[in-house]
Amino acid sequence: MVAWTPPAVDEGGMRQSPQLTTARPVSRLARRLSLPVLTLAVLATATLAAAPARAADCAGANLLPAIASVSTAKDATLCLINGERAARGVAPLSSQPELEATADAYSRAMVAQRFFDHVSPGGQTSSDRVAGYVGSASDWMTGENLAWGANALGTPSTIVRGWMGSAGHRDNILNAAFTEIGVGIATGSPSGGLPALSATYTTEFGTRTTSSSGSMRASASSLDPVPATTAKRLSAKQKRQISKRCHRVAKRTKGSKQTRKARYDRCVRTQTRAATR
Predict the structure, then answer these.
(1) SS3 category, 277
(2) Residues 76-112 pLDDT 10s
(3) Half-sphere exposure of 190 (CA within 13 A, CB side)
């Protein structure tokens, strides 16, 4: 059984959330800095589709990180993700140190501060987190998947199968434009689960090119690059300012979390259009 639920879920469930961030002149998605955040709860009785990359092919895939070791769990997670890509003719992702450090830090923060969201309690967004990775790149695109699970739902194989069962997470995993990834895992969960029996996952997807390398040529056919001469690029600082400003607007919006997220997305789109004219 797969159920869409409010933010709170029972201990032992698995929660996940995807996010995609783009920068000009990557694609038509550049006019919106983030896709709607989805929260998926897969209960212990869920039946998940089998992954093309079998858990048996990836050492430690069926073990909790605290048992197999966090390092082994990271390798298993990447192995399973690349197996999904390979099964569909998409090139594998390579591990990137900056993205891995970012993912690790965010997983630890969610466990320590007891929250589960793409925006931290202090207002840090996914764009803020990858600012170091983006650096002075002329073209870039990043994506972020989050999940946590307890007991059997906290293993790499269950987490990746859960991501593949959700459109937003699956899009990030199979996006041919991404070339690099950072997998971060922390033992424990945002709900306060025991470190030995639960785990929190962050995957940071990315691709970037420097100004000296020319425009990025993405392999995804849906991407429609905009010539650099026809679009004003926003600096990383401007993006952070827009994100923080819209986060404040969303916090003042009455309604559900979904309503506030929709308000945040509209705000970002509007302010980005205004800033790039």
Answers:
(1) coil
(2) 999 999 999 999 999 999 999 999 999 999 999 999 9
(3) 26
164, amino acid identity: M
CA atoms within 13 A on the CB side of 75: 9
How many other CB atoms sit within 10 Å of the CB of residue 88? 10
Mean pLDDT of 178-207: 96
CA distance linking residue 180 with residue 168, whole number of Å: 18
Q: Which two tokens stand for residue 156?
A: 């790499």
pLDDT in tens, 215-259: 333 322 222 222 222 234 667 777 878 788 878 877 877 777 777
In the sheet with 94-95, reading across from the earlier edge strand, the strands are 2-3, 40-42, 14-22, 139-150, 198-209, 180-187, 94-95
User: Tokens for 240?
Assistant: 């952070």
Closest of 275, 270, 21, 245 to residue 131, by C-alpha: 21
Per this entry, what is the length of the chain? Answer: 277
Please give the backbone phi and psi of residue 252, each rounded to the nearest 5 degrees, phi first: -85, -5
Residue type, 109: A
Helix or strand holding residue 149 (H, E): strand 139-150
Question: What H or E segment, with its residue span, contains residue 260?
Answer: helix 257-275
Cα 4 from Cα 112, distance rounded (Å): 26
> Distance (Å, rounded) from C-alpha 130 to C-alpha 208?
11
Q: Is 203:182 a contact under the CB 8 Å cutoff?
A: yes
CB 149 within 8 A of CB 199: yes
